[in-house]
């Protein structure tokens, strides 16, 4: 989620297009519902593109061939442990010919509760930190403004510890609450 938000606030034109898609298919008088997802193709493209650029882990689960195998011209004997570098494949110019590291959700096209923007004009840092889960080197800091429908059903308040706006996701009205 943090990678997706970082990419979106660095590419306001993509965020605007996603917002327009949600407004067109869902409107502003209710939240996105699970049934809406099949109509939100651009949002799916954004998610796919984010996972391509920033996979949850750089290496896939190790594989072990049950028989001798040749892959990419390399001989792999039976019983070998094969590690697949998904991060590298997703940045391979042979596969992603048109600027493999760029954020272009349109590549995935065909197959919203908040308004987000950067806290400054400076692009969000997209450097990766150390670890097997590909964390961001610098934490994401963005400004979030609830869409009108969120204000109707939830409480907005200031966090007394940090003085920053927070959202209480407990419904204002008691009763059954469901996200989907």
Automatic annotation (TrEMBL):
Domain of life where this protein originates: Eukaryota
Region annotation Disordered: where it falls in the sequence: 153-180
Cofactor or coenzyme needed: heme
Molecular-function annotations in GO: heme binding; iron ion binding; monooxygenase activity; oxidoreductase activity, acting on paired donors, with incorporation or reduction of molecular oxygen
InterPro entries found in the cross-reference section: Cyt_P450, Cyt_P450_E_grp-I, Cyt_P450_sf, Plant_Cytochrome_P450_Monoox
Location(s), subcellular: Membrane
Keywords assigned: Heme, Iron, Membrane, Metal-binding, Monooxygenase, Oxidoreductase, Transmembrane, Transmembrane helix
Protein's UniProt keywords contain Transmembrane helix: yes
GO cellular component, one term: membrane
SUPFAM superfamilies in the cross-refs: Cytochrome P450
Pfam families associated with the record: p450
Protein family according to the UniProt entry: Belongs to the cytochrome P450 family.
Name listed for the protein in its UniProt record: Cytochrome P450
């Amino acid at each position: 989620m943090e990678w997706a938000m970082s990419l979106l606030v660095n590419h306001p034109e993509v965020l605007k297009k996603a917002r327009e898609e949600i407004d067109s298919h869902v409107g502003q008088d209710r939240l996105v519902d699970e049934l809406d997802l099949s109509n939100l193709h651009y949002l799916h493209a954004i998610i796919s593109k984010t996972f391509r650029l920033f996979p949850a882990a750089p290496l896939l689960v190790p594989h072990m061939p049950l028989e001798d195998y040749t892959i990419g011209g390399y001989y792999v004997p039976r019983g070998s442990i094969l590690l697949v570098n998904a991060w590298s494949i997703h940045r391979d110019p042979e596969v992603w010919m048109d600027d493999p590291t760029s954020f272009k959700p349109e590549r995935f096209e065909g197959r919203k509760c908040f308004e987000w923007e950067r806290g400054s004009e400076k692009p969000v840092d997209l450097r990766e930190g150390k670890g097997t889960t590909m964390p961001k080197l610098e934490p994401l800091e963005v400004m979030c403004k609830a869409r009108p429908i969120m204000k109707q059903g939830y409480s907005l308040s200031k966090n007394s510890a940090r003085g920053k706006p927070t959202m209480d996701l407990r419904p204002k009205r008691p009763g059954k609450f469901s996200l989907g």
